[in-house]
């Protein structure tokens, strides 16, 4: 099933939807693309064991909502990949479903759609910041009752419990491209003071441009922030990172926004902090047991909830698909070997330290 003239790419998930011209004129001339036909993990494992798809050089997943039927990409799957594989290029920003370090140890780059969703996710976080300060969800729920009495009651109440974000401290956890865009927008549009924590400090020029104050510990940031916005990947270090202890460090009446991944925030701890009014509001685009939303959180008028649509703009989907192709072109040479480095690597450290 493999071509001897061009490197083979194993395509998983739905066909190309947006970038047909690039696919036909830039991608297909370079690669022999084979569509995966299995529909369950067992069948996929058998296909890998039998070398059904030959010595393919890349795995191509242009749509993160399809092609995930095989479940977690762990050692069981990765160990069966042929030694010819150079890159796993996927759409989407998250990668908790793939053991990217294990891929790196096999000298396989893992790339995501970093950059494609920056604008959309930072806009979503900005909306959520406004919502938790101004209690927009409570007002919307009241308006949708179409009850004049409820309308007037909420109209009067909101002005007594809401605040302008201006002058308040926005604590950004994880200072990557998305959160830097958010920091710029929150400072310039809302007049907020930007503080941040990351395991890697931004350079002095970026801090100066964003007027951002660095904290060398998460605890230190939590203690000063009026609103926390989370922008960290989900891994063993960040699972339940915002737990009861972390929430107890936050100011009484402070707020939390999560557009990262649901399990970064311990759901039970968050509910308790809201019920005791230690937190005044929360906004979640992502959920602990997604797609199941907590019914207790859904019942709270001071909690803004959305359906993981932070990056949900057509522009994002187009660029996710395009970036996956560009990453493969950057990495795989005409002989199937390495031609260069990917544009958006996730597992650089594991890849570079592999023997």
From TrEMBL:
<dbReference type="GO" id="GO:0051287">
    <property type="term" value="F:NAD binding"/>
</dbReference>
<dbReference type="GO" id="GO:0016618">
    <property type="term" value="F:hydroxypyruvate reductase [NAD(P)H] activity"/>
</dbReference>
<feature type="domain" description="D-isomer specific 2-hydroxyacid dehydrogenase NAD-binding">
    <location>
        <begin position="127"/>
        <end position="310"/>
    </location>
</feature>
<dbReference type="InterPro" id="IPR029753">
    <property type="entry name" value="D-isomer_DH_CS"/>
</dbReference>
<dbReference type="GO" id="GO:0030267">
    <property type="term" value="F:glyoxylate reductase (NADPH) activity"/>
</dbReference>
<dbReference type="InterPro" id="IPR006140">
    <property type="entry name" value="D-isomer_DH_NAD-bd"/>
</dbReference>
<keyword id="KW-0560">Oxidoreductase</keyword>
<dbReference type="Pfam" id="PF02826">
    <property type="entry name" value="2-Hacid_dh_C"/>
</dbReference>
<dbReference type="InterPro" id="IPR050223">
    <property type="entry name" value="D-isomer_2-hydroxyacid_DH"/>
</dbReference>
<dbReference type="GO" id="GO:0005829">
    <property type="term" value="C:cytosol"/>
</dbReference>
<dbReference type="InterPro" id="IPR036291">
    <property type="entry name" value="NAD(P)-bd_dom_sf"/>
</dbReference>
<protein>
    <recommendedName>
        <fullName>D-isomer specific 2-hydroxyacid dehydrogenase NAD-binding domain-containing protein</fullName>
    </recommendedName>
</protein>
